[in-house]
């Protein structure tokens, strides 16, 4: 708990820098307006004007907070302007994709630990695929699936699943191999079958690895969903909010969508963290 | 139909061959290259066979041969996009972002107070969907490569920073005390002991950052770009249903991504040759 003070100091410094930045970046517009009206600007006028522009280059923190509050609490939840509505669209695709990707990753990891051929053929590709900018194919997947008549939640969830799949696969393979040969030999002397070894030794000892990669995976699938919402045609979701904000120069809208996405990521990672702590504690590992 | 049956037969044979090789020669060097290579060839062949055999329209999924043909024909376009996105956008942003992160890490390393404040925030930011700042940065820096580089800088900064700070803390008391008994100054201690000790951690961050850099540069182009660049080409070619061109761009992105990663990994091997993880492999 002694790190609270330093964190608050750094946060305060960031907010201060942000205010200074918004004054500096928005000043040009204020000066232009004043020059057009033939007036001159005093320092106090400059400060108050740069804080309250309608379309600032960099909105001041309180403007973003206002936009966030408006979007989260000022609208009916079903309204198209409500961030809760857009956040829910993004969240549901993220969770569906995360569940798909995690399930598939675990199944494939179990296969890889039990088959040497699969290990040797799939693992190099799984590791190499981590170096490939997979997100670049997101718009293509969306458009192709749309032309097949698949729209809505599923295409976005597929991209989210793809992104969370590899971290889970790699982490889970490491975790299932974590038991050392002493422990494996012990189970062999008990005449345990492969299934029993998997259930009673490999699965429990892989849990710390699984949770570490789940945290990476859930963040990755949120990024995947947001990017999947960018291609033309999407009107719902946080990614679409970002894109329409950038088209119409609504900077406050972009920043509020961005902060909603950040809060969503933090909550998701936090939830996985809490589940991790409870699980590991009950298993006696934490 | 004949193609599809051939593909499935080939798949079964290759599976058998791989299982046999893995059982008999699994521990030999050549098998560890041959098995994944055969697996990759099989995937391509099954893809080709199924697309040809089942008559799947190229609008949905082009065959690998078709992609290869487009790849060979549209060399100038691909080269132009490669220069715009990878060399100008990703690479310059990568160098600036990683450089800034290393400098900041060395600076905040002197103050434990700042470290305790910045590290949790850095870790937190590293998990956020940072690509979201792309529309803002495109607004600030214009459509050309500068805005892409800016997105890349923001994306790579925090992973590298967190790793570098952890690396600078990686020396133990004994080693630092030894430097003190040599009456080494702060800078001598930094250059001769702590920077080399931080290298394995730094390269971890640099390797993560290579992929992030490419993703940032490509995704930022979806928010606006001049009429060249890989992200631009992908989104417009998708609109024209020119899927072979899209797949060619993806091939370039994949090759560039693995090449970039490979270069950084090679550098790591040269710089951290003393580290156990590198010695074990040789």
TrEMBL record, chain A:
<protein>
    <submittedName>
        <fullName>ABC transporter permease</fullName>
    </submittedName>
</protein>
<comment type="similarity">
    <text>Belongs to the binding-protein-dependent transport system permease family.</text>
</comment>
<keyword id="KW-1003">Cell membrane</keyword>
<dbReference type="InterPro" id="IPR000515">
    <property type="entry name" value="MetI-like"/>
</dbReference>
<keyword id="KW-1133">Transmembrane helix</keyword>
<feature type="domain" description="ABC transmembrane type-1">
    <location>
        <begin position="83"/>
        <end position="276"/>
    </location>
</feature>
<keyword id="KW-0813">Transport</keyword>
<keyword id="KW-0812">Transmembrane</keyword>
<feature type="transmembrane region" description="Helical">
    <location>
        <begin position="125"/>
        <end position="147"/>
    </location>
</feature>
<feature type="transmembrane region" description="Helical">
    <location>
        <begin position="209"/>
        <end position="234"/>
    </location>
</feature>
<keyword id="KW-0472">Membrane</keyword>
<feature type="transmembrane region" description="Helical">
    <location>
        <begin position="88"/>
        <end position="113"/>
    </location>
</feature>
<dbReference type="InterPro" id="IPR035906">
    <property type="entry name" value="MetI-like_sf"/>
</dbReference>
<feature type="transmembrane region" description="Helical">
    <location>
        <begin position="254"/>
        <end position="275"/>
    </location>
</feature>
<dbReference type="Pfam" id="PF00528">
    <property type="entry name" value="BPD_transp_1"/>
</dbReference>
UniProtKB/TrEMBL annotation, chain B:
<feature type="transmembrane region" description="Helical">
    <location>
        <begin position="201"/>
        <end position="224"/>
    </location>
</feature>
<feature type="transmembrane region" description="Helical">
    <location>
        <begin position="35"/>
        <end position="61"/>
    </location>
</feature>
<dbReference type="Pfam" id="PF00528">
    <property type="entry name" value="BPD_transp_1"/>
</dbReference>
<feature type="transmembrane region" description="Helical">
    <location>
        <begin position="82"/>
        <end position="108"/>
    </location>
</feature>
<keyword id="KW-0472">Membrane</keyword>
<keyword id="KW-1003">Cell membrane</keyword>
<keyword id="KW-1133">Transmembrane helix</keyword>
<keyword id="KW-0812">Transmembrane</keyword>
<keyword id="KW-0813">Transport</keyword>
<dbReference type="InterPro" id="IPR035906">
    <property type="entry name" value="MetI-like_sf"/>
</dbReference>
<feature type="transmembrane region" description="Helical">
    <location>
        <begin position="120"/>
        <end position="143"/>
    </location>
</feature>
<feature type="domain" description="ABC transmembrane type-1">
    <location>
        <begin position="100"/>
        <end position="269"/>
    </location>
</feature>
<feature type="transmembrane region" description="Helical">
    <location>
        <begin position="150"/>
        <end position="170"/>
    </location>
</feature>
<feature type="transmembrane region" description="Helical">
    <location>
        <begin position="245"/>
        <end position="267"/>
    </location>
</feature>
<dbReference type="InterPro" id="IPR000515">
    <property type="entry name" value="MetI-like"/>
</dbReference>
<protein>
    <submittedName>
        <fullName>ABC transporter permease</fullName>
    </submittedName>
</protein>
């Amino acid at each position: 708990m002694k790190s609270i003070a330093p964190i608050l100091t750094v946060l305060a410094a960031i907010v201060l820098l942000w205010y200074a930045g918004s004054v500096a970046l928005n000043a040009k517009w204020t000066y232009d307006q004043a020059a057009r009206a033939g007036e001159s600007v005093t320092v106090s006028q400059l400060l108050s004007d740069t804080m309250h522009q309608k379309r600032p280059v960099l909105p001041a923190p309180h403007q973003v907070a206002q936009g966030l509050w408006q979007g989260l609490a000022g609208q009916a939840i079903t309204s198209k302007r409500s961030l809760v509505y857009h956040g829910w669209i993004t969240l549901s695709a993220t969770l569906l994709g995360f569940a798909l990707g995690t399930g598939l990753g675990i199944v494939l990891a179990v296969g890889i630990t039990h088959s040497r051929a699969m290990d040797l053929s799939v693992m190099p590709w799984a590791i190499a695929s981590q170096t490939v900018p997979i997100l670049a194919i997101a718009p293509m997947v969306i458009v192709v699936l749309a032309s097949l008549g698949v729209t809505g939640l599923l295409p976005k969830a597929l991209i989210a699943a793809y992104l969370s799949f590899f971290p889970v696969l790699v982490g889970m393979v490491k975790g299932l191999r974590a038991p050392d040969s002493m422990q494996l030999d012990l189970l062999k002397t008990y005449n345990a079958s492969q299934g029993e070894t998997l259930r009673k030794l490999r699965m429990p000892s892989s849990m710390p690895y699984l949770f570490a990669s789940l945290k990476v995976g859930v963040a990755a699938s949120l990024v995947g969903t947001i990017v999947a919402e960018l291609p033309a045609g999407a009107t719902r979701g946080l990614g679409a909010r970002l894109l329409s904000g950038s088209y119409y120069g609504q900077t406050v809208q972009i920043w509020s969508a961005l902060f909603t996405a950040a809060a969503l990521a933090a909550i998701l990672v936090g939830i996985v963290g809490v589940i991790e702590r409870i699980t590991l504690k009950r298993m006696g590992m934490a | 139909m004949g193609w599809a049956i051939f593909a499935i037969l080939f798949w079964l044979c290759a599976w058998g061959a791989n299982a046999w090789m893995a059982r008999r020669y699994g521990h030999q060097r050549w098998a560890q290259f041959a098995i994944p290579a055969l697996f990759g060839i099989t995937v391509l062949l099954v893809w080709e066979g199924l697309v040809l055999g089942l008559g799947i329209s190229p609008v949905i999924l082009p065959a690998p041969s078709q992609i290869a043909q487009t790849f060979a024909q549209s060399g100038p376009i691909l080269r132009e996009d490669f220069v715009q996105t990878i060399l100008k956008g990703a690479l310059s942003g990568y160098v600036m972002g990683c450089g800034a992160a290393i400098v900041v890490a060395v600076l905040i390393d002197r103050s434990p107070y700042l470290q305790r404040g910045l590290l949790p925030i850095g870790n937190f930011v590293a998990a956020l969907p940072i690509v979201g700042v792309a529309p803002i940065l495109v607004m600030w820096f214009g459509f050309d490569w500068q805005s892409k580089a800016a997105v890349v800088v923001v994306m790579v900064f925090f992973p590298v920073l967190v790793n570098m700070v952890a690396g600078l803390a990686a020396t133990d008391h004994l080693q630092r005390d030894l430097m003190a008994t040599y009456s080494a100054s702060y800078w001598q201690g930094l250059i001769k002991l702590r920077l080399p000790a931080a290298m394995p951690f730094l390269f971890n961050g640099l390797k993560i950052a290579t992929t992030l850099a490419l993703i940032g540069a490509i995704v930022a182009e979806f928010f606006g770009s001049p009429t060249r660049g890989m992200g631009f080409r992908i989104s417009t070619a998708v609109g024209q249903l020119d899927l072979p061109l899209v797949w060619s761009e993806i091939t370039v992105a994949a090759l560039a991504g693995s090449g970039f990663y490979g270069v950084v990994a090679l550098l790591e091997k040269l710089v951290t040759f003393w580290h156990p993880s590198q010695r074990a492999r040789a």
